[in-house]
Amino acid sequence: MKQVVGYIITFCCFSLLLLLVNEITDEISVAQTHQEQIESQIKLPTIEKQLPVTMVDRNGLVFNEEYTEWRQPIPLKEVPEIIKQIYLLSEDKEFYNHVGFNLGAITRAVVVNSSQDSMEQGGSTITQQLVRLRYLSEEKTYSRKITELFYAYELEQQYDKDEIFEMYLNEMFFGNQVYGIGAASSYYFQKPLAELSIAEMAFIAAIPNNPSLYNPLNHFENTKKRQERLLDILASNHVISKEEATTYKQEKIVLNKKEKIQKNPAYSTYVLAELKSLISTNEGFDQLLAEAKTEDEKAKINEQIDEKLNQLLQSGIVIHTALDSKKQLQDERAINKILGNGSLQGSAVVIDNQTREIVSLYAGKDYKKFDFHRAYQGVRQPGSSIKPLVVYAPLFETTNYTPNSIVSGGKYCVGDFCPENYDGKLHGNVSISTAFKYSYNTSALQLLDTIGLNTAFQYIEKFHFESLVPEDKSYAAGLGGLSYGVTTLEMADAYTSFIDGTYAKARSIRQVSDLEGNVLYSWPTERETIWSNKTVTYIRSLLKDVVTSGTGKGITSNSSYIGAKTGTTNDYKDFWLAGLTDRYTTAVWIGYDNPKSMQSLQDDKIHFKIFNTIMN
């Protein structure tokens, strides 16, 4: 009988050996085929993973997060010893002794799986699990398993054990798009890992074994049961006592789930748009675009910009902004109330005079993130609000005219272009100050004709009006007649040149840093002098006259200085107001998305109310 049993065992072992030889022969072929792929893909730093993009306001408070995967990598030295022991004892006791795989564990797994005709027994080391997380699928085939061994061995040749363990702890999946033990701590408890109790540490450590089964948001009791098993493992290996394990099991676990921070959508949406411009400028792409001769060349450069942007967003960055969160909220609430419940829309931009930073943005009523952003995407005709930039400032800069100089308010034509005044009347000789504060179109045309289009556009082109086209170099432009128009942000930005004559494009981003705090990008701080002190003095005087006794009567501020220019387009389709106080520069637009007459709203001066609210 013993001899028969011996024959049976020998036959089974021989059959198992043949099975293993066949499998190994096939996998050696597969492994050789993929050797180059293995060598190139094993370099972990090239693996793409998306770390969170965080935006902070001027006070360092987080107001927006962008991520599809929540990750917060932490160094191994900051991981509590209890966490390390949980994974070493429950997943891979021989981690610090093997070469990436454990032959004894693999043999046991093969025997069990062969007897059960399945691939459920894993025998995977921490290194193998890391390989699977980073490079391979979760399919349970011998082909994938053999490839996994090659990867694991190669990984151990390139990194020491602590580096591999750190990668593993930061790569594990904790359900709900959370990756890494540090991220799990902040996601499920909103606390740093080091501040968790041992019971809480064991609780989140339970999740990766089966993130669906142990998802604490859906299967809390399952997670709790595994937590208790992990505490028993710690006790049986004398990491904690049995009494401590009992105490920790009795501790009540209270989850405090992290919600993605998505505040101030109007501001955060613009920040992402500006980020692309910041990269283009810092990396020299804007210069390449300026030198590109064909549309194909421009398209390729734009692809490079997008690629660089995506790489940056995936790397995990902190965007430090100039946002005044309190003012942003106050401005939005106030403007929403002023605009009311109808379809009337508006946009507004507030810029800090001292820093030339954008402190608040109003993108439209009921704005949702990535909607049409009226502050920087809404291109509309500016009406007379553009006159100081195209006509009056260039006039003072290049001639001896002053606000007291005389100009006709009567009929004036250039060719067949014969505009009418806003009030529909003709006026005799008046001072430039009078023509300005009552916005006489005929006077503005005469003065523009005096300096010429070349001179006027020499100055207007210094600003960033992106929708200007060559056809706009016409006398109609001096009165706001453009092919497409301008945005609210562009108008506010250009008006900052009247603060002191210098100009640098207004920005929302102060700097971009990596997760270690190293500054990656920032804007140049130099400003260009556009207007002389004489011109600035004259323009500020004219803008003040508009408010005190001109078309801007009704504008108020607690500032010692306030000046503004109104603008109304043909058929009352757009109402504008641009100006500045001692502290802020702003531009306000109201209108309908599908332009129509607002003549019935003229006396309500809704844009005045908005201006008064956001500038105080």
Automatic annotation (TrEMBL):
<dbReference type="InterPro" id="IPR001264">
    <property type="entry name" value="Glyco_trans_51"/>
</dbReference>
<feature type="domain" description="Penicillin-binding protein transpeptidase">
    <location>
        <begin position="346"/>
        <end position="615"/>
    </location>
</feature>
<keyword id="KW-0121">Carboxypeptidase</keyword>
<dbReference type="Pfam" id="PF00905">
    <property type="entry name" value="Transpeptidase"/>
</dbReference>
<keyword id="KW-0378">Hydrolase</keyword>
<keyword id="KW-0511">Multifunctional enzyme</keyword>
<dbReference type="Pfam" id="PF00912">
    <property type="entry name" value="Transgly"/>
</dbReference>
<dbReference type="InterPro" id="IPR001460">
    <property type="entry name" value="PCN-bd_Tpept"/>
</dbReference>
<feature type="domain" description="Glycosyl transferase family 51">
    <location>
        <begin position="67"/>
        <end position="232"/>
    </location>
</feature>
<keyword id="KW-0472">Membrane</keyword>
<dbReference type="InterPro" id="IPR023346">
    <property type="entry name" value="Lysozyme-like_dom_sf"/>
</dbReference>
<dbReference type="InterPro" id="IPR050396">
    <property type="entry name" value="Glycosyltr_51/Transpeptidase"/>
</dbReference>
<keyword id="KW-0133">Cell shape</keyword>
<protein>
    <submittedName>
        <fullName>Penicillin-binding protein</fullName>
    </submittedName>
</protein>
<keyword id="KW-0645">Protease</keyword>
<keyword id="KW-1003">Cell membrane</keyword>
<dbReference type="InterPro" id="IPR012338">
    <property type="entry name" value="Beta-lactam/transpept-like"/>
</dbReference>
<dbReference type="InterPro" id="IPR036950">
    <property type="entry name" value="PBP_transglycosylase"/>
</dbReference>
<keyword id="KW-0808">Transferase</keyword>
<keyword id="KW-0961">Cell wall biogenesis/degradation</keyword>
<keyword id="KW-0573">Peptidoglycan synthesis</keyword>
<keyword id="KW-0328">Glycosyltransferase</keyword>
